[in-house]
Amino acid sequence: MDILKTLALFVVTAVAEIVGCYLPYLWQKQGKSAWFLVPAALSLGLFAWLLSLHPTASGRVYAAYGGVYIMVAVMWLWAVDGVRPSAADLLGVAVSLAGMAIIMVGSRSNA
């Protein structure tokens, strides 16, 4: 799987995970309907399925996915929560993406 497709799949996976966790948060902390738990469960199921689509070893996928998850979570912080990321947030994203790149690119020879 080429790097751009993998990155796109990671982004979609992260959104599915965040939505799956955000909806129960809305139910529990903001008094939204318990019906929010239904799409949350579906979203978390989608998240798990999406992680299974990667052709490499699962531990490596999960480790690399973490970097993209951090990036998407900070984007969510800004877009949904309305909190502008700090310089430290952005530095953390850069470091985590560098770690992801090291894991994914550096391990290409030993799938």
Automatic annotation (TrEMBL):
Membrane topology summary: Multi-pass membrane protein
Residue spans crossing the bilayer: 7-27, 33-50, 62-80, 86-106
Keywords (A to Z) from UniProt: Cell membrane, Membrane, Transmembrane, Transmembrane helix
Keyword Glycosyltransferase: no
Subcellular location: Cell membrane
Main location: membrane
Xref: SUPFAM superfamilies: Multidrug resistance efflux transporter EmrE
The UniProt record lists the keyword Cell membrane: yes
InterPro entries: EmrE-like (IPR037185), UPF0060 (IPR003844)
Family statement drawn from the similarity comment of this UniProt entry: Belongs to the UPF0060 family.
Protein name, entry field: YnfA family protein
Organism: Pelomonas baiyunensis
